[in-house]
User: What shape does this take?
Amino acid sequence: MLEKGIREMQLSHDPAAVDAVFDEGNLVSCAGLAPVLALAERAGLSELLAEHVSVPSPNAPAKVTALLAGMVAGADSIDDMDLLRHGAMDRLFTGVRAPSTLGTFLRAFRFGHVRQVDAVAARLLARLAARTPLLPGADRVAYVDVDDTVRETHGYAKQGAGFGYSGVSGLNALLGVVSTPTAAPVVAAARLRRGPTNSARGAARLVSDALKTAKAAGADPTAGALVIARMDSAFYGHDVIAAVRRAGAKFSVTARMSPTVTAAIAGIDEAAWTAIHYPNAFTDPDTGELVSDAEVAEVPAFTAFTSRRKNEQVTARLIVRRVKRLNPDLPSATARGKVPAGQEELFTTFDQWRYHAVFTDSPEAMLDAEATHRAHAVIEQVIADLKAGPLAHLPSGVFTANAAWLALATIAFNLLRAAGALAAARPGHDLAVATTATLRARLITVPARVARSARRLTLHLPRRWPWHEHWTRLADHTLSPAPLPTSA
Assistant: This one.
């Protein structure tokens, strides 16, 4: 029951007295596409598409731009591209294509064409970073995070689909993102792979590409920036670390609990452990439990990959976090009879804790390096954003079409991030770090009435739009000849 005098929100008229007629030809539902596409043009998207993309289809750049516009507006399938053909959209934009045309265009992609779109994505990100406050502070500290995810598919018509490590049938997307301490991550590299693909397959190449793009976007280790590549244990391999080092960056990789790692942890003196309390609890990757207290210690010189040739072995720091087991009644390794003779005491101690080791050559202090590695989880937000947007589906049965869809989704993601950075009151705040769903709701899906007068278009937007200051700030930066603000 509502308190006396308080009424719920309801229609102002009797529902039977409300009519709906789809007859207004001067309205658009996503006026925010205007400043975002203007931003893309000012960053040279058309020029890059004309230079790099050679898909055998008429007006390929226009079709790519139409796909990007649909994704920015929230399309997650080919049919959703019809969103671009309502009301006054044909007065506000040119080059709009039908969904069937765009689907046929995607199916014309081959692997080389997908790599061309990847090249456009990398170059456009560098230009956006140079022209907007997208990655503030990248010239000082930046992080490149790499992870993969399985996008579930259904039916038998998807080329390359299969069961991967997640236990569901789908296609595997490998992503590399770049961020700074005050900037939300943007996508620096992406690859679509077969569903059963091992996480580390092709990772060294993607890491190299992501670091190269990060460098072009301002995170240049040769110019004094501290660039740290962060990954989980699936990428704990000599080839991935070698790729990071060739780029001049530092690495921070979760170490697998191999016998050499276990022995190194066992050699840590009990007095060397530092107790810490985390003000913001985080989720334990093994158990899903929230962790607020732990102990951290370090092995200053640990040599990894000792089974490989000498020049493939790597010596760096091993930073170890341990957390008390919350259920000491679980059968211990000793009780299960899995302990080598003579090591019962060691494994009894291990049974009391859960250990997480990070292999890194970061110059940061121990606790800072451990906290930096935990922040690798930021890439999960990117994955969640993509799956809540264009990657809600992989729309084609053709593998290369889906690979092109992923590449285009990363461009749309970065355009939205750049728009949020321009709309924000200041770098690193509000829309500069918002999720793409929030950016889309506040900046893109804004209804407007289109009017023409004296050869000019006017967008009549809703009165009292809660985020009108952000929208106006974005429009002022993109729909005017004034130079775009930068991160400097």
